[in-house]
Protein backbone atom coordinates (compact mmCIF):
# COMPACT_ATOMS: atom_id res chain seq x y z
CA UNK A 1 0.00 0.00 0.00
CA UNK A 2 2.86 2.36 0.80
CA UNK A 3 4.37 1.78 -2.64
CA UNK A 4 1.09 2.65 -4.37
CA UNK A 5 0.80 5.85 -2.34
CA UNK A 6 4.38 6.81 -3.30
CA UNK A 7 3.62 6.08 -6.96
CA UNK A 8 0.41 8.12 -6.99
CA UNK A 9 1.98 10.91 -4.92
CA UNK A 10 4.82 11.18 -7.44
CA UNK A 11 2.43 11.41 -10.38
CA UNK A 12 0.25 14.00 -8.63
CA UNK A 13 3.20 16.13 -7.51
CA UNK A 14 4.75 16.09 -10.99
CA UNK A 15 1.37 17.07 -12.43
CA UNK A 16 1.02 19.95 -9.96
CA UNK A 17 4.51 21.25 -10.76
CA UNK A 18 3.73 20.93 -14.47
CA UNK A 19 0.50 22.89 -13.95
CA UNK A 20 2.34 25.63 -12.05
CA UNK A 21 4.97 25.87 -14.80
CA UNK A 22 2.36 25.98 -17.54
CA UNK A 23 0.47 28.71 -15.68
CA UNK A 24 3.65 30.71 -15.03
CA UNK A 25 4.80 30.56 -18.66
CA UNK A 26 1.29 30.89 -20.17
CA UNK A 27 1.50 27.69 -22.21
CA UNK A 28 -0.82 24.72 -22.46
CA UNK A 29 -0.41 21.96 -19.86
CA UNK A 30 0.44 19.22 -22.35
CA UNK A 31 2.65 21.44 -24.50
CA UNK A 32 5.14 21.74 -21.66
CA UNK A 33 4.39 18.26 -20.30
CA UNK A 34 6.76 16.25 -22.51
CA UNK A 35 9.89 18.41 -22.01
CA UNK A 36 9.11 18.72 -18.30
CA UNK A 37 8.59 14.96 -18.05
CA UNK A 38 11.97 14.28 -19.65
CA UNK A 39 13.77 16.73 -17.35
CA UNK A 40 11.97 15.43 -14.26
CA UNK A 41 12.71 11.83 -15.25
CA UNK A 42 16.41 12.61 -15.68
CA UNK A 43 16.67 14.46 -12.36
CA UNK A 44 14.75 11.80 -10.44
CA UNK A 45 16.88 9.06 -12.00
CA UNK A 46 20.06 10.81 -10.91
CA UNK A 47 18.89 11.09 -7.31
CA UNK A 48 17.16 7.71 -6.91
CA UNK A 49 19.70 5.48 -8.63
CA UNK A 50 21.62 3.84 -5.79
CA UNK A 51 24.74 3.30 -7.83
CA UNK A 52 24.62 6.59 -9.70
CA UNK A 53 27.07 9.44 -9.80
CA UNK A 54 25.27 11.51 -7.15
CA UNK A 55 25.24 8.60 -4.69
CA UNK A 56 28.91 7.84 -5.27
CA UNK A 57 29.76 11.53 -4.84
CA UNK A 58 27.78 11.94 -1.63
CA UNK A 59 29.04 8.76 0.06
CA UNK A 60 32.60 9.95 0.85
CA UNK A 61 31.26 13.32 2.03
CA UNK A 62 28.88 11.65 4.47
CA UNK A 63 31.59 9.27 5.66
CA UNK A 64 33.90 12.23 6.25
CA UNK A 65 31.26 14.06 8.27
CA UNK A 66 30.42 11.16 10.54
CA UNK A 67 34.02 9.95 10.83
CA UNK A 68 33.31 6.34 9.89
CA UNK A 69 34.98 4.79 6.88
CA UNK A 70 32.91 2.05 5.29
CA UNK A 71 34.13 -0.42 2.73
CA UNK A 72 32.57 -0.05 -0.68
CA UNK A 73 30.36 -3.03 -1.32
CA UNK A 74 28.40 -4.23 -4.27
CA UNK A 75 25.05 -2.55 -4.28
CA UNK A 76 21.78 -4.31 -4.71
CA UNK A 77 19.59 -2.52 -7.22
CA UNK A 78 16.11 -1.94 -5.89
CA UNK A 79 13.03 -0.56 -7.49
CA UNK A 80 12.40 3.13 -6.89
CA UNK A 81 8.69 3.81 -7.05
CA UNK A 82 9.41 7.52 -7.38
CA UNK A 83 11.29 6.73 -10.60
CA UNK A 84 8.50 4.44 -11.79
CA UNK A 85 5.96 7.19 -11.03
CA UNK A 86 7.95 9.68 -13.11
CA UNK A 87 8.12 7.19 -15.99
CA UNK A 88 4.35 6.66 -15.78
CA UNK A 89 3.79 10.43 -15.70
CA UNK A 90 5.98 10.92 -18.77
CA UNK A 91 4.22 8.14 -20.66
CA UNK A 92 0.79 9.53 -19.74
CA UNK A 93 1.68 13.01 -20.95
CA UNK A 94 3.19 11.54 -24.11
CA UNK A 95 0.08 9.47 -24.88
CA UNK A 96 -2.35 12.32 -24.14
CA UNK A 97 -0.24 14.75 -26.19
CA UNK A 98 -0.25 12.39 -29.17
CA UNK A 99 -4.02 11.98 -28.80
CA UNK A 100 -4.61 15.74 -28.60
CA UNK A 101 -2.36 16.47 -31.59
CA UNK A 102 -3.19 13.32 -33.60
CA UNK A 103 -4.28 15.39 -36.60
CA UNK A 104 -0.89 17.04 -36.71
CA UNK A 105 0.94 13.70 -36.63
CA UNK A 106 -1.35 11.81 -39.02
CA UNK A 107 -1.61 14.47 -41.77
Strand content: under 5%
Mean pLDDT: 83
The tally of structural domains comes to 1
Low-confidence stretches: none
Can you write the helix and strand succession as a string? Answer: HHHHH
The strand count comes to: 0
The secondary structure category is: mainly alpha
Biggest sheet record: none
- Helix count equals 5
Using only CA atoms, what is the Rg?
18 Å
Share of residues in helices? over 70%
Shape verdict: elongated
End-to-end C-alpha gap = 44 Å
What does this structure look like?
The chain has one domain. Helix content is 77%, strand content 0%. The longest helix is centred in the N-terminal third of the chain and has 23 residues, at 2-24. With 107 residues, it is mostly helical. The chain contains 5 helices and no strands. The protein is elongated. The protein has helices at 2-24, 29-48, 53-66, 81-100, 102-106.
Topology:
Elements: H1 2-24, H2 29-48, H3 53-66, H4 81-100, H5 102-106
Give a quick rundown of the structure:
This protein has helices at residues 2-24, 29-48, 53-66, 81-100, 102-106. With 107 residues, the chain is an all-alpha fold. The protein starts with a helix and ends with a helix.
What attributes does this structure have?
107 residues, mainly alpha
